[in-house]
């Protein structure tokens, strides 16, 4: 029986969806960071339970032909580039496989081709935004990135996947914070002033915004700091302050102040100009976002008489990109500042056929239908949790011919496609796009088309002839907890079960485990417990 600190020879047979190597020995599945399929390694056992374990590479006996040996391991340990040890062409294959596997396992789809992942020519130094924590390490103020699954800061100057000018600005700010003796934030003591540095840079314009995230409004000698950093980087057109005095993992608080210049930067995407405010969502990889949006436009087969709904419209990037191809665009977003941004961006580009409202997408669509607005195309680009069931039903009730769905989470996307199919839409095209090279994340565009009911006949099947075993196999939270405890020997909370279910596209109750205390920290499920819950979900045939 294997135990902690044992060293054994194993072969890596696969990768997890987050890029860890998988080894199997003595009936156990081990997860090993920085290990690739076909590699034989000496593995040190770090932790072992009844069915799963964790190991580290003690010595690599044979190397994969697809290993990138030039990667600084700090990028793996921090999670900045958790696929960086895998050669880039293989990263693209890995991501296409993730999409294909999710469509099959979650939605039962295997007869639709998944295209090869669209990749970058130079898949590094692409991020146009940095969010960098500021902490004290060994008595010195440092900037860097948290070690995986912790809040222990790893000091870094070169972030590998970030615009190198942004890295230079962060280092300059770090040095100025040290010079003016501004205190870094201490999470344990809930003390200090500077929590985070956020830097945005326009890919085409080169304009830079600096955001100081602080625990209180007053910042000693901030005018001198701004004067010095602008001397070094005259491209800085905006310095903002965000005050976040809450005990929270959220980067930003509610209060914003403009310390220098304007409260936005301007950049271009697909020929349009966009004002980008501090808190606004804007794709971090401009080059690949243009490919993403252009592919979406191509998928949607837009015509001059199309009426388009742009749900989750943000600052209008995708809706305004399609406006010149169609009759009208109607955008909806729940964040008031983003709606204001999108309206300004429409005006900035002389676009008069795009209209934006602040509302939930479900309500907006119902109101538009009452007003006689009949969409032919719906564009959706939701957050990682995917679409709500009520949105899917509301969007299908519009009778739109085509739905182009941009997803940053293949599991929730597959779940949503399954429901769309039940409501009369068919999956026609699937295109993965590598918006986040060197990481396990994959963006996907799918096209759903309304089924022409005239081409189909109705068939009635006796219920007795149908195998409903899988559909009926829904375990309760208590059953999952009991299975994990009996199999792995530890307890898991219902909150963790809900997090894992949502992550893998399974439905949970609408407001399950949301605290009434808006300042409360929500703990994230540890990898060990996530794998145990996944094992339970597979045991009960829910995945």
TrEMBL record:
<dbReference type="InterPro" id="IPR030391">
    <property type="entry name" value="MeTrfase_TrmA_CS"/>
</dbReference>
<dbReference type="Pfam" id="PF05958">
    <property type="entry name" value="tRNA_U5-meth_tr"/>
</dbReference>
<feature type="binding site">
    <location>
        <position position="312"/>
    </location>
    <ligand>
        <name>S-adenosyl-L-methionine</name>
    </ligand>
</feature>
<keyword id="KW-0489">Methyltransferase</keyword>
<keyword id="KW-0949">S-adenosyl-L-methionine</keyword>
<dbReference type="InterPro" id="IPR012340">
    <property type="entry name" value="NA-bd_OB-fold"/>
</dbReference>
<dbReference type="Pfam" id="PF01938">
    <property type="entry name" value="TRAM"/>
</dbReference>
<feature type="domain" description="TRAM">
    <location>
        <begin position="1"/>
        <end position="59"/>
    </location>
</feature>
<feature type="active site">
    <location>
        <position position="408"/>
    </location>
</feature>
<feature type="binding site">
    <location>
        <position position="333"/>
    </location>
    <ligand>
        <name>S-adenosyl-L-methionine</name>
    </ligand>
</feature>
<dbReference type="GO" id="GO:0070041">
    <property type="term" value="F:rRNA (uridine-C5-)-methyltransferase activity"/>
</dbReference>
<feature type="binding site">
    <location>
        <position position="381"/>
    </location>
    <ligand>
        <name>S-adenosyl-L-methionine</name>
    </ligand>
</feature>
<comment type="similarity">
    <text>Belongs to the class I-like SAM-binding methyltransferase superfamily. RNA M5U methyltransferase family.</text>
</comment>
<dbReference type="InterPro" id="IPR002792">
    <property type="entry name" value="TRAM_dom"/>
</dbReference>
<dbReference type="InterPro" id="IPR030390">
    <property type="entry name" value="MeTrfase_TrmA_AS"/>
</dbReference>
<protein>
    <submittedName>
        <fullName>23S rRNA (Uracil(1939)-C(5))-methyltransferase RlmD</fullName>
    </submittedName>
</protein>
<keyword id="KW-0808">Transferase</keyword>
<dbReference type="InterPro" id="IPR010280">
    <property type="entry name" value="U5_MeTrfase_fam"/>
</dbReference>
<dbReference type="GO" id="GO:0070475">
    <property type="term" value="P:rRNA base methylation"/>
</dbReference>
<feature type="binding site">
    <location>
        <position position="283"/>
    </location>
    <ligand>
        <name>S-adenosyl-L-methionine</name>
    </ligand>
</feature>
<dbReference type="InterPro" id="IPR029063">
    <property type="entry name" value="SAM-dependent_MTases_sf"/>
</dbReference>
<feature type="active site" description="Nucleophile">
    <location>
        <position position="408"/>
    </location>
</feature>
């Amino acid at each position: 029986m294997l135990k902690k600190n044992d060293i054994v020879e194993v072969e890596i047979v696969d990768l997890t969806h987050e890029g860890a190597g998988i080894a199997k020995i003595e009936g156990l599945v081990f997860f090993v960071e920085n290990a690739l399929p076909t590699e034989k390694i000496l593995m040190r056992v770090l932790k072992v339970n009844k069915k799963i374990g964790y190991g580290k590479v003690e010595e690599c006996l044979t190397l994969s032909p697809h290993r990138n040996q030039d990667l600084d391991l700090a990028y793996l340990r921090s999670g900045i580039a958790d696929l960086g040890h895998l050669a880039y062409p293989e990263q693209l294959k890995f991501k296409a496989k993730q999409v294909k596997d999710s469509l099959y396992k979650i939605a039962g789809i295997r007869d639709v081709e998944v295209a090869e992942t669209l990749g970058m020519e130079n898949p590094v130094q692409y991020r146009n935004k940095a969010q960098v924590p500021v902490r004290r390490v060994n008595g010195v103020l440092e900037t860097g990135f948290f070690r995986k699954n912790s809040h222990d800061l790893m000091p870094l100057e070169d972030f590998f996947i970030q615009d190198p000018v942004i890295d230079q600005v962060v280092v300059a700010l770090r040095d100025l914070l040290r010079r003016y003796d501004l205190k870094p934030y201490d999470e344990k003591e809930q003390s200090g002033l500077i929590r985070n540095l956020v830097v945005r840079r326009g890919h085409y314009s080169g304009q830079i915004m600096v955001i100081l995230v602080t625990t209180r409004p007053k910042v000693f000698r901030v005018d001198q700091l701004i004067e010095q950093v602008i001397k070094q980087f005259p491209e800085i057109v905006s310095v903002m302050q965000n005050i976040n005095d809450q005990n929270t993992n959220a980067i930003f608080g509610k209060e914003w102040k403009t310390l220098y210049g304007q409260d936005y930067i301007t950049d271009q995407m697909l020929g349009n100009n966009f004002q980008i405010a501090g808190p606004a969502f804007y794709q971090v990889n401009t080059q690949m976002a243009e490919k993403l949006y252009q592919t979406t436009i191509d998928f949607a087969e837009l015509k001059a008489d199309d009426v388009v709904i742009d749900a989750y419209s943000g600052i209008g990037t995708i809706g305004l990109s399609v406006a010149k191809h169609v009759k009208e665009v109607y955008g909806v977003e729940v964040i008031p500042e983003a709606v204001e941004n999108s309206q300004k961006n429409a005006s900035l580009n002389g676009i008069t056929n795009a209209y934006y409202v602040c509302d939930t997408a479900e309500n907006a669509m119902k109101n538009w239908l009452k007003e006689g607005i009949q969409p032919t195309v719906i564009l959706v680009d939701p957050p990682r949790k995917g679409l709500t069931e009520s949105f899917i039903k509301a969007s299908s009730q519009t009778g739109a011919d085509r739905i182009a769905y941009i997803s940053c989470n293949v599991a929730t996307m597959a779940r949503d496609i399954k429901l769309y199919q039940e409501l009369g839409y068919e999956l026609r095209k699937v295109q993965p796009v590598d918006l986040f090279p060197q990481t396990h994340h994959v963006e996907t565009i799918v096209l759903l088309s309304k089924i022409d009911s005239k081409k189909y006949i109705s068939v009635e099947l006796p219920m007795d002839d149908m195998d409903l075993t899988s559909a009926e196999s829904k375990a309760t939270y208590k059953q999952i907890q009991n299975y994990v405890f009996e199999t792995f020997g530890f307890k898991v909370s219902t909150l963790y079960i809900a997090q894992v279910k949502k992550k893998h596209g399974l439905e949970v109750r609408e407001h399950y485990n949301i605290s009434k205390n808006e300042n409360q920290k929500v703990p994230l499920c540890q990898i060990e417990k996530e794998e145990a819950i996944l094992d339970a979900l597979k045991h009960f045939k829910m995945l």
